[in-house]
Amino acid sequence: MATMKAVRIHQYGGPEVLKYEDAPRPQPGPGEVLIRVHATSVNPVDWKVREGHLREMMKYTLPLIPGWDVSGVVESIGAGVMRLKTGDEVYGRPDISRNGAYAEYIAVRESEVALKPKSLDHAHAAAIPLAALTAWQALFDAAKLAAGQTVLIHGAAGGVGTFAVQFAKLKGARVIATASKKNHDFLRSLGAAEVIDYNTTKFEDVVHNVDAVLDTITGETMERSWQVLKKGGILVSILQPPSAEKAAAHGVRCAHVFVQPSVAQLDEIAGLVDSGKIKPIIERVYPLSEARAAQDSNQGGHTRGKVVLKVL
Ligand SMILES: NC(=O)c1ccc[n+]([C@@H]2O[C@H](COP(=O)([O-])OP(=O)(O)OC[C@H]3O[C@@H](n4cnc5c(N)ncnc54)[C@H](OP(=O)(O)O)[C@@H]3O)[C@@H](O)[C@H]2O)c1
User: Fold this and answer.
1) Main-chain phi, psi angles of 100, to 5 degrees
2) Dihedral sign, CA of 286, 292, 295, 299?
3) Any residues with Cβ below 6 Å from ligand 1, and which?
4) φ, ψ dihedrals at 102, nearest 5°
5) Considering only Cβ atoms within 10 Å of each terminal Cβ, which end of the chain, N or C, has fewer?
6) Per-residue pLDDT averaged across 152-166, rounded?
7) Residue 16 — left, alpha, or beta (φ > 0 → left; ψ -120 to 50 → alpha)?
8) CA distance linking residue 252 with residue 232, whole number of Å
């Protein structure tokens, strides 16, 4: 059996359960492509899976390879693959219920990957799919954010937030962001009109009548967000379904977004990247063998943009 280097978990737990080791090399099934992974990136879901938080929902069989972002080159294609061919440079968000991309190879459905932005190397392309698709779907599919509207983005300096700020600004919306002080100039440079230091200012004291709130934090941040919305506005959480009763009591709407694959959206995002309108923000690149340190750094909760794992 052909093998590859991969990072796997054989049990749930802390960073120490991440093992850099030999694993079976996957084969593409019908409708799938085998990708030679060049880079992947760390998302909070990676360490949430590692700790076992999604084990009921996903019914994983261990060992499991984490990593649900990929940028790489199509190595081979399975039966029935029509759109992609061997040698294509692709990026995407693999199915979170299957093995991820902390590995030299991954087999994914053709419908999960698109041609990567031509102007970026694989490390930068791998920083995009999961976070950017989430931001896109929250702002445009759920909130239907339009030019001239105002959006409050919580966690604006993070993986999802850095894309959300850029997408909202590009749409012509006014962006108010929450972040700690060290990220304020950075977020203004991405397009935020106003940045609130959540450590020293209660956002609800200074923000009123916004059309939409994108909440990437939850807890009391979500609870305090109802009151800053205008009547008919919308609170979108990417962490949990907000209370429909509380929404009704405030005369607003709410939605929960769980990121879905979309080749059309990946294509559109690649176009925006290649035309210089959107850029991924990378805090640090680690080699795959240092996945523990990479996850540790993201789990600290203060990543600016993304942490990337370079495989090739
Ligand atoms: N539903 C979905 O499909 C989906 C998809 C992607 C992510 N998620 C979830 O969404 C959450 C965010 O993901 P992410 O990738 O953006 O995470 P991340 O990159 O790890 O977020 C880190 C950022 O959060 C900021 N932050 C921390 N506490 C804050 C607070 N109280 N107020 C405002 N900002 C705060 C930090 O800014 P400072 O350093 O300035 O404090 C940091 O830049 C995670 O829980 C993730 O699992 C869900």
Assistant:
1) -95, -155
2) negative
3) 43-45, 130-131, 134, 154-155, 157-161, 178-180, 183, 198, 216-217, 221, 238-239, 257-259, 298, 301-304
4) -80, 65
5) N
6) 99
7) alpha
8) 4
* Residues linked to residue 23 through DSSP beta bridges, in sequence order: 4
Give 96-125 pLDDT, tens digit per residue: 999 999 999 999 999 999 999 999 999 999
pLDDT greater than 90 at residue 149: yes
- Strand order of the β-sheet with 253-256 is 194-197, 174-179, 150-153, 210-215, 229-237, 253-256
Overall residue count recorded for the chain in this entry: 312
Which residues, 6 or more positions from 74, have their beta carbon under 8 angstroms from its beta carbon?
33, 34, 35, 36, 84, 85, 86, 87, 88, 90
State which of 238, 256, 265, 296 you would mutate to test the pocket of ligand 1, scoring each by most atoms of that ligand within 8 A of its C-beta.
Answer: 238
Question: What's the 23 CA to ligand 1 centre distance in angstroms?
Answer: 31
- Average pLDDT estimate for 77-95: 98
Domains parsed from the chain with CATH numbers: 3-128+280-310 (3.90.180.10), 131-256 (3.90.180.10)
Mean pLDDT computed over 192-211: 98
What is the pLDDT, as a whole number, of residue 259? 98
**Which of these, 149, 89, 150, 93, lies nearest to 120 by C-alpha position?**
89
Confidence of residue 210 (pLDDT cuts 50, 70, 90): very high
> Cα separation of 42 and 151, whole Å?
26
User: How many whole angstroms from its chain centre is CA 94?
Assistant: 12
Q: What does pTM read for this prediction?
A: 0.99
Rounded to an integer, what distance in angstroms lies between the CA atom of residue 105 and that of residue 232?
Answer: 47
